[in-house]
Design brief:
This protein is α+β, with helices and mostly antiparallel strands. It contains nine helices and five strands; from the N terminus they run βββαββαααααααα. Strand 2 and strand 3 form a beta hairpin. The longest helix is centred in the last third of the chain and has 16 residues.
């Protein structure tokens, strides 16, 4: 029914926004990832829209800044016991790229950090989405880490966690390094990660 809304942003907060189109104000539920990219009140905005209707909640519109966010949201709510609330929580907790990479590398520990998700729910998400998330918008997310062994990646992640680095820091730096380098050992990844993290901390 709805594909997108283009109009004037009338109100916004971290969980919702109101977009006025031809004199009608549409309230749209949004994740933090979209809220962070909204323009100032009074500016024109285009939002990708997912339309939902249920007997309990009635009509609801979910809005996203990018088509990738919308597609991931739709894939998430297709998973058993994952409703819109948890799907928005996932999109609020990490970027599309971070989530896709976590699924492709079966990183249960990272996905489990999202409020509302436990270990079993995270494992179910990975099982049901692993063959789907790489197809988001025909995107670049396909098998991001295929050139480097997943076992090596996990060993390096464990070593960096032991050294006191935070999981989100590690995942973000892996995203950059593993896209451009084919590492043969976990030691190579750890050394490169520490060097890159040190540079970022001194920018």
């Amino acid at each position: 029914m709805f594909s997108y809304l283009r109009g004037i942003l009338k109100r916004k907060n971290p969980v919702s926004a109101v977009v006025e189109c031809s004199g009608v104000g549409y309230e749209v539920l949004i994740p933090l990832s979209t809220f962070d990219r909204l323009p100032e009140i009074g500016k024109e905005i285009e939002m990708q829209i997912h339309f939902s209707f249920s007997e309990n909640d009635g009509i609801r519109l979910f809005g996203f800044f990018t088509q990738e966010e919308k597609e991931l949201f739709q894939q998430l709510i297709s998973v058993s016991k994952i409703g819109p609330k948890i799907a928005l929580s996932i999109l609020s907790g990490m970027s599309v790229k971070e989530f896709v990479q976590a699924v492709l590398t079966e990183n249960v520990s990272l996905i489990s950090t999202i409020p509302g998700l436990g270990k079993k729910s995270s494992e179910r998400l990975i099982i049901e989405l692993k063959d789907k998330v790489g197809k988001i918008s025909g995107s670049e997310y396909k098998a991001v880490f295929t050139e480097t062994s997943e076992d090596i990646i996990r060993e390096a992640e464990s070593a960096l966690l032991t050294l006191g680095y935070k999981l989100f820091e590690i995942q973000r730096i892996f995203s950059e390094l593993l896209r451009n380098h084919n590492f043969k050992t976990s030691e190579e990844i750890v050394k490169a990660s520490i060097k890159a993290l040190y540079k970022k901390s001194n920018l």
